[in-house]
Write a structure and sequence with these properties.
With 586 residues, the protein is of the alpha/beta class. The chain has five domains: 4-100, Orthogonal Bundle (Arc Repressor Mutant, subunit A), CATH 1.10.10.10; 102-246, Serine Threonine Protein Phosphatase 5, Tetratricopeptide repeat (Alpha Horseshoe); 258-423, 3-Layer(aba) Sandwich (Rossmann fold); 429-498, no CATH class; 505-585, Orthogonal Bundle (Arc Repressor Mutant, subunit A), CATH 1.10.10. It is 50% helix and 11% strand. It has 26 helices and 16 strands. The protein has a six-stranded parallel β-sheet with strand order 8-10-11-12-9-13, sandwiched between helices. A four-stranded mixed β-sheet has the order 3-2-1-7. A three-stranded antiparallel β-sheet has the order 4-6-5. It starts with a strand and ends with a helix. Residues 245-254 have low confidence and may be disordered. Belongs to the AfsR/DnrI/RedD regulatory family.
Length: 586
């Protein structure tokens, strides 16, 4: 079998054992390119037609695509690569063949694991050397061009990173020609402009550096109606004031730290041991250089305090991540709107990191590349709150080794490659008493400690519910603790009693329940008959009329979704407040 390689980083090329495999005609080349970019996934026939004819397809388009696929199969017959039917279209089986785009990505990512700036430069030079011009040069399909925008962004981000590193190494004069060409080709890419201004200034061409800025500012105002970025304006000012002689080892180092963490709502209580666990896991990462970015995954049921814990952790560690502390609500179970998808989340993160809205790429891959470039060389803490799954957050995780990401979710993110995973439990009795007493703010809790414990039990020892009950008592100065406990005793009305404008307990549980499929929803409703007591899988299986092994799998899924608690092998119980919720559904 031939050793075959495909080349997209320039004109489309296919080689077998070093000899070109002719792919004749723009139609065949476009179809092959679309299939290669699909990464082995099926491409629907209508998409292939759009790629070839851009909405102006002739009546014979389907037949022509099939003929093009037949020609490609014939051309690739001796290589082991095949084109298979897939869905209502086709998929390409590369059979282990090489792709220069994959090799570029591998080499560029390898640079992040190098500690020496010179080694990083060599890795990035090696990656950029694979480019033979614009990706798929000569193919004009708009469908292809939209896909290639993200790939081009990867190249530009790698080039920017390499130039930054070479500036650190003092290689100024040798970069002038390359950066002049880059600015001419990408006049609105202000990073290149800043780098060119830097090398000109360091090479003694201060006046030319100022002219580059003036030309860029004029072009931005005339064609886009905007001013240069703050960091570019700051560099311009440093050159004017004569402090530009030492600009530019890294452009933008004077940029203020990024910070959009929500303000403190209340001091965190009852989580000292959990915080210590995380800090021990991170020890060394926050104190010095690290080869990989850290990820802390925090999961737990609705109302257990995941967001409060993550924000508190972020503030505790802020000084170890001086370049910024960023927050985004992914709204997987939120009440503020629909779930935030990955492209929208990347846009929010880029804006929070100071990227102007008008310069944020429109496509997903472009945004990912811009995000990774923005973080390169920085120590930033990122909180991704309320994630739906590991797949929901994976594209948002930084590659920069100095960064820390804290992810919260109602599901246990077992497949997420994390430095530390933590499931937040219900509060202890002591922590619950402390929180309840602090919020009530008078001596009634101390006078009726047994009634306080009863309220804690009715609240399932969930911080959100405990705070809600305490706020209710604080606003009812004529009530005793015992009276509030009696009002919470009825499981069917308990959530209504605890309902506050800011709490939304029932709604929060609704969001978790609605994400279950019908089979899991049915089992959850059946569990309301058992109560908030330990139960074994055999008893639940009898109640549900299902085999024990299947019931156990369903129960374990509910545990992973934090709708149920595992108390031992094959034994489960429902949180007291979750049981009150299940009674409303039964």
């Amino acid at each position: 079998m031939s050793r075959i390689s495909f080349h997209l980083l320039g004109p489309l090329k296919c080689e077998a054992n070093g000899t070109a495999v002719p792919i004749r005609g723009a139609k065949q080349q476009t179809v092959l390119a679309i299939l290669l970019l699909a990464g082995g996934k099926p491409v629907a026939l209508p998409r292939l037609i759009d790629a070839v004819w851009d909405g102006q397809a002739p009546p014979t388009a389907t037949k022509q695509i099939r003929n093009a696929v037949s020609d490609l199969r014939h051309a690739l017959a001796h290589t082991g690569v095949s084109i298979q039917p897939g869905g209502d279209g086709y998929r390409l089986d590369r059979a282990g063949s090489a792709l220069d785009l994959d090799e570029f990505t591998r080499r560029a990512e390898l640079a992040a694991f190098k500690s020496d700036p010179g080694a990083k430069v060599e890795a990035l030079r090696s990656a950029l050397a694979l480019w033979r011009g614009r990706a798929l040069a000569g193919l004009t399909s708009p469908v292809l061009r939209s896909q290639l925008a993200g790939i081009e962004e990867l190249r530009l981000a790698a080039l920017e990173q390499r130039v930054d590193l070479e500036l650190e190494l003092g290689m100024h004069a040798s970069l002038i020609g390359e950066l002049t060409a880059a600015v001419a080709e990408h006049p609105f890419r202000e990073r290149f402009v800043a780098q060119l201004m830097t090398v000109l200034c360091h090479s003694g061409s201060r006046a030319q550096a100022l002219k580059v800025f003036d030309d860029t500012r004029r072009r931005l105002r005339d064609e886009l109606g905007v001013d240069p970025d703050p960091e570019l304006r700051a560099l311009h000012l440093r050159i004017i004031t004569g402090t530009g002689a030492d600009v530019g080892t890294t452009v933008g180092t004077d940029e203020p730290p990024w910070h959009n963490l929500p303000g403190d709502t209340a001091p965190l209580t009852g989580r000292d041991s959990e915080q210590d666990l995380v800090l021990r896991a991170l020890r060394g990462h926050a104190d010095g250089p690290s080869t990989t970015p850290a990820v802390v995954a925090v999961d737990g049921m609705a109302g257990v305090g995941k967001t409060a814990f993550a924000l508190h952790l972020g503030r505790q560690l802020a000084s170890a991540y001086p370049d910024g502390q960023l927050y985004v609500d992914l709204r997987a179970h939120g009440l503020a709107g629909p779930r935030l998808d990955v492209p929208a989340a990347l846009a929010l993160l880029l804006r929070a990191a100071g990227r102007p809205a008008g310069s944020i790429p429109a496509d997903l891959e472009g945004r990912r590349a811009a995000w990774h470039h923005r973080l390169a060389g920085r120590r930033v803490l990122i909180i991704l709150d309320d994630a739906a799954s590991a797949a929901h957050v994976a594209p948002l995780l930084p590659h920069a080794p100095g960064c820390l990401t804290v992810v919260t979710s109602r599901r246990r993110l077992s497949s997420l490659h994390s430095t530390h995973q933590l499931s937040l439990p219900e509060f202890s009795i002591a922590a619950g008493r402390d929180l309840f007493g602090r919020v009530v703010g008078d001596n009634r809790p101390q006078a009726e400690s047994a009634a306080v414990d009863e309220i804690l039990r009715h609240c399932g020892r969930l911080p959100l519910a405990i705070r809600s009950a305490a706020v209710r008592l604080r606003h009812r100065t004529a009530w005793s603790v015992s009276y509030l406990a009696s009002r919470l005793a009825d499981g069917r009305s308990r959530l209504a009693e605890l309902s506050m404008d800011s709490a939304g307990l029932a709604e929060a549980f609704d969001m978790s329940f609605n994400r279950l499929d019908p089979e899991h929803q049915r089992l959850f409703r059946l569990l309301s008959r058992i109560g908030a007591h330990d139960v074994d899988a055999e008893r639940v299986a009898t109640l549900a009329g299902l085999p024990v092994h299947h019931t156990t799998r369903l129960l374990e899924d509910l545990v992973d979704s934090h709708m149920l608690l595992a108390t031992g092998p094959g034994r489960y119980r429902m949180n007291e407040l979750m049981h009150a919720y299940s009674l409303q559904l039964a």
